[in-house]
Design brief:
about 0% strand; single chain; globular; disordered N terminus
């Protein structure tokens, strides 16, 4: 067990998660050096937020001392109420994050990304663009450690909910839970549409057993374009990313808007610190999406540039605004033809005006 001085200044409820985070980051870096594959964090991305959330939601379940090296424990210095009573809000948040994990794990599995030999294509491209020494610095600082810290941060709202110790769920809990479930469902549809399109693009065959929401009759024009622009993707260039960020923003709001919240003081911006996890995640997604889109632009320069002009990056409500601006400039029909193809330009244009 680490020396007591290591935990000085760290809340008792955060001691095991901090230790777990640091060990995971070190393991990810060591494995990346040994295997030459830097996608070690990617493979556990679906599980780590759930592990942190489960730890906080199930505090009364854990012993006061670790039984095994990685075994969760709650130090004896923690407040007695936290190890005697479960927080219904924290349990609800754990349930939602568990459903989120199932959706993401399924999508990761069917894309083959749990394969130990698979590496995110973006890392391979970045490796070619920068010197070897710089890539290793990025691997150590960002890929291995910063990403692990972000995953650790995603569990903090549940820690706050556990400390709040509400006796029952509030109206805000029910509203946010409903929004979170809708968000997960929409993201599942976006994932299925992307998977369906990529399958058709690769095989030229429509799958017979598509999930509801993904039963789109893709055309040769869609495959030739190279990227999906129909379904939810006609409204947002990255509807899955939009939903992902929205989900964690909702999770962050649970303790923030709860009746027991001590953070809604209008006198200080620092009182909104529980929003930090979702803000950090949004920053990561925005920067990552810029890099991803630079790759798409290099592959489909004319079509994808038109797509960027026509459809909002994340927020679907902005897409009609972009359509209106293009119409005022007299460019909408031309852009629609590039984005949606001759056969669906009229329909898509009417939907997203």
């Amino acid at each position: 067990m680490a020396p007591i001085s290591f935990y000085r200044g760290i809340s008792p409820t955060l001691q095991w998660p901090v230790r777990f985070c640091l060990y995971n980051a070190a393991a990810a870096y060591i494995l990346s050096v040994i295997t030459g594959n830097v996608s070690q964090v990617d493979r556990v991305w679906t599980f780590l937020p759930t592990i942190y959330t489960a730890y906080y939601a199930l505090l009364p379940l854990w012993p006061s001392k670790p039984r095994l090296f990685f075994w969760p424990y709650v130090p004896e210095t923690v407040h007695p109420d936290l190890v005697q009573k479960y927080s219904p809000r924290a349990l609800l948040m754990f349930g939602l994050v568990f459903i989120w994990m199932c959706r993401l794990s399924y999508n990761t599995w069917r894309r083959g990304l749990f394969n130990l030999n698979d590496e995110d294509y973006r890392w391979a491209i970045l490796r070619k663009k920068v010197p070897t020494w710089l890539f290793q610095v990025i691997n150590l600082t960002f890929i291995a450690f910063i990403q692990n810290v972000i995953l650790f941060l995603l569990g903090l709202p549940t820690e706050v909910a556990a400390v709040q110790q509400p006796s029952k769920l509030s109206t805000s809990d029910y509203i946010l839970a409903t929004l979170a479930l809708i968000d997960i469902a929409v993201e599942f549809v976006a994932d299925n549409q992307q998977y369906s399109f990529q399958t058709y693009k690769r095989t030229g065959v429509h799958e017979q057993n598509e999930w509801p929401g993904a039963r789109i009759k893709w055309t040769p024009a869609d495959a030739k374009r190279g990227f999906v622009t129909r379904g939810l993707w006609a409204w947002s260039r990255h509807p899955n990313f939009f939903c992902e960020q929205s989900f964690w923003a909702i999770i962050n709001l649970f303790p923030l808007v709860a009746p027991e919240s001590a953070y809604l003081s209008p006198r200080s911006v620092t009182s909104l610190w529980p929003l930090l996890p979702s803000l950090v995640l949004c920053t990561l997604f925005f920067s990552s999406t810029l890099f991803t889109e630079s790759i798409s632009l290099s592959k489909y320069p004319e079509g994808y540039r038109a797509y960027q002009k026509r459809v909002a990056m994340f927020v679907p409500f902005l897409t009609p605004v972009w359509g209106l601006l293009l119409r005022l400039q007299g460019k909408k029909e031309e852009v629609d033809r590039l984005v949606y193809g001759q056969d669906v330009a009229d329909v898509a244009g009417k939907k997203t005006q």
